[in-house]
Write a structure and sequence with these properties.
By secondary structure, the protein is of the alpha+beta class. It has five helices and seven strands; from the N terminus they run αβαββββββααα. A seven-stranded antiparallel beta sheet has the order 1-7-6-5-4-3-2, with helices on one face.
């Protein structure tokens, strides 16, 4: 009888977890942000879309350049993520797909002039998890909106230095 209770205590949550992961959508996280940055549109575009070093970001310990359109970000607190540029419209749009262990996603930034030496950016990021058992873990443990907010905060903090960063 005790074995049956033990099996039930372990099996019921495991089955419920599996069902939750199976019915959860593959797109487990979406983050958006709109921010006005005190920098000219050409400088801001260059820093985000052209300068792969991303030296203004506090969450990165480094970036490995793989080609003109591919790079790998080495974050301080997570495994490496590989990016590939999908679309690039100068001073207007930058889009990249990314892939990490067990997930993939899309990162999109639209640039709009907002006055003299001021630019508004609209950021959209989504994460898709293929394996159903990983979906609940990623949804519960990865604060995607916090990551996008940190990116924007880092941009704002570094805006005065962008003229020296532009390649």
């Amino acid at each position: 009888m005790m074995v049956a209770y033990t099996i039930a205590i372990v099996a019921v949550p495991a089955i419920a977890y599996g069902i939750a992961g199976a019915v959860m959508p593959r797109r487990v996280a979406v983050a958006t942000s709109t921010a006005t940055i005190p920098a000219p549109i050409d400088q801001l575009f260059a820093v985000i879309a052209e300068d792969r070093r991303q030296s203004f970001r506090s969450d990165l310990k480094g970036v490995e350049i793989l080609s003109d359109t591919r790079w790998r970000e080495l974050a301080n607190d997570s495994p490496p993520v590989e990016y590939e540029q999908v679309r690039r419209v100068p001073n207007s749009l930058f889009e990249a797909d990314f892939r990490g262990r067990g997930f993939r996603g899309r990162w999109l930034v639209r640039f709009t002039p907002a006055g003299d030496a001021v630019t508004t950016i609209d950021i959209y990021e989504e994460v898709v998890v293929k394996h159903f058992l990983l979906r609940p873990i990623v949804r519960a443990s990865y604060p995607l909106q916090d990551a996008v907010n940190r990116f924007v905060a880092d941009l704002r903090d570094a805006a005065d230095d962008f003229a020296s960063v532009v390649p």
